[in-house]
Specification:
The protein is mostly helical. The chain has 8 helices and no strands. It has one domain.
């Protein structure tokens, strides 16, 4: 909802800029809006438009990179859960309690990160959720070389899984610098004001400027949504972790 609200505000700022340009058009003296003046304004607008395109492209690339990184880490965590369960399965029936604890822990994590009502905020804060699993694994008493290997490897995988969750938490903050967005919106407002300053006042022009402002706001909305991968309309799915739990067979 925050991304939608910010995008609506940006749409208002940009579109009001074009309306303000139309309102100012009759006020300057004629020589201020002649061909020479218009050429200079168009050159400056072209420069600002180029800078805006570069910044917008940079923001999109940054947000998409952050989103993809979170997605890969989530899939990696699901693979670690599956690997850990397989190691405990190889250990033998004595590890059944550890497998149950692993399943319960993953279910609690899913409930914290993906609230069932989709309204609550995701909770990525690292907790001691894996403590019961760690205790259950360390309490195992291996009798064979295979069991000792499975226990040691399971503890390594569990440590990596905990580190992955901490990494997800540390990267959960916004990666888009706020000054970038503010400067971009300012430039876009200036550009649309220039459009309105030299455009004829008719329904077609107003509709075109309206669509343009909507498009710009929509692009920034997508950037803000991609920058929050565990919240909003484009949040990552819990499918990989749920699939890993479904394959545990306990």
């Amino acid at each position: 909802m925050a991304a939608l609200f910010i995008s609506c505000m940006i749409f208002g700022v940009v579109f009001i800029g074009s309306v303000l340009g139309m309102a100012l058009r009759p006020r300057p003296p004629e020589d201020h809006i002649g061909e020479s003046s218009k050429n200079v304004v168009q050159l400056v607008m072209g420069l600002i438009a180029t800078m805006s395109a570069l910044v917008l492209g940079l923001l999109i690339a940054s947000a998409k990179s952050s989103y993809d990184a979170h997605s890969e880490e989530l899939v990696h965590a699901a693979a670690q859960v599956r690997q850990l369960d397989q190691l405990l399965s190889v250990y033998g029936p004595e590890a059944s309690d550890a497998r149950v604890q692993l399943r319960l822990t993953m279910e609690r994590v899913i409930d914290r990160v993906w609230p069932s009502d989709r309204e609550g905020p995701p909770n990525l804060a690292p907790a001691t959720a894996t403590a019961p699993v760690f205790a259950a694994i360390t309490n195992l008493e291996p009798h064979t070389t295979a069991q000792r290997f499975a226990q040691s490897k399971a503890l390594d995988v569990l440590a990596d899984l905990s580190a992955t969750r901490v990494l997800l938490y540390e990267q959960s903050g916004r990666s888009i610098p706020v000054p970038f967005v503010i400067v971009l919106v300012f430039w876009l407002a200036i550009i649309f004001m220039g459009f309105g300053l030299f455009a004829p006042t008719n329904a077609t022009v107003i509709a075109t400027l309206f669509v343009g402002a909507m498009s710009v706001a929509g692009a920034i909305f997508l950037i803000l949504e991609l920058d929050q991968p565990f919240a909003g309309l484009m949040r990552l799915s819990s499918g990989p972790l749920r699939d890993a739990i479904a394959q545990m067979g306990i």
